[in-house]
Give the backbone structure.
Amino acid sequence: MAFGQGRDISERMNDEITAREVRLIDENKVQLGVRAIADAIALARERGMDLIEISPDATPPVCRIIDHGKYRFELQKRLKETKKKQKVVHLKEIKMRPKIDVHDYSFKLNHIKEFLAAGDKVKFTIMFRGREMSHTQIGFEVMKRALEDLKDVAIIEKEPKLEGRNITAVLGHKK
């Protein structure tokens, strides 16, 4: 068996099952009652299938008679389906300076709107260099203006805060 293609550690089958008695379910999902492990394994082999421990924590453990290859295939198929349905949210970052020009400001705001429309979150940063640090209120004014311009498409997930030489805020898409 190649690496990464093995069974789940908690999933035991046939002779690996340590319980003396198991609650047995056949391939058609019909309960066959509590049976001795030897009888259950013999019944599974008689039908040309495997005995797989489904619920090891139950008393007695629940085991099913199923074709192991088909069972693994169905499990992988279900995992693939759940991965397809997941939406990955990326965190995009837009950086501005406190003395940003009007055109550059509107251009970056359009980028933020595009990112939010795509379902991503945006980390909005205003950077300060050198003596700009003594005029952080200008940066807060730019941030306030930007948040006001974006209020119809964005919600503020993290309020603007001065962290070192940057003012940062995190925006999410308004539902």
Summary: The domain at 91-173 is CATH 3.30.110.10 (Translation Initiation Factor IF3). The radius of gyration is 30 Å. Helices lie at 37-46, 68-85, 102-117, 136-149. The longest strand covers residues 154-163.
